[in-house]
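fwd from M.: "can u put these together and see what the complex looks like"

so here's what she sent:
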Amino acid sequence: KAGVTQTPRYLIKTRGQQVTLSCSPISGHRSVSWYQQTPGQGLQFLFEYFSETQRNKGNFPGRFSGRQFSNSRSEMNVSTLELGDSALYLCASSLDGVIPYEQYFGPGTRLTVT
Amino acid sequence: SQKIEQNSEALNIQEGKTATLTCNYTNYSPAYLQWYRQDPGRGPVFLLLIRENEKEKRKERLKVTFDTTLKQSLFHITASQPADSATYLCALDEANTGFQKLVFGTGTRLLVSP
């Protein structure tokens, strides 16, 4: 089975722009979670989607949003980019979202905001 | 305030020795705790999950303990190998709401020398 894939792998944007990141979960997985990883704050939970519904949300401003499609693929969007949004964005999928569940992470998208 | 603490300094050990990593948490009451491994430039990889009613869990050369009284989990790698060199992250479910919302520690970098 193919693993979790994320596109693009690297992205450079300018302050004020917006960006959309994509995540394709492992085939059959219905839960997709998004995380932000920075050297200072570590891995922080952004949100989780299950069957196209957001089930959980972390403590991030409304500029961060996401969605999930009927095929379980997910996108996250960051509007009005700030320098502090530079980070590795990771998505993780799991089979059915029944806790506790292990998560399978993708390689991440490295976003640099200049 | 709530926090998860892992040794921020790298742990250096000789090949063949046992590595012990610590995860302490404050103001959480997790029903379970997970350990992940992360290599540079890659997403975390799930290793082990231990529930609050389990004192110890093993998988090949890995062993995890969970002491809810001490609010601590220990992660052991026996007969360590240079290939075990990586950052190890502990994570717990912040919410206990039925929907998993993982909070990660900042990780401990393990370096195994030949």
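replying to her w this: The mean pLDDT of chain A is 94.
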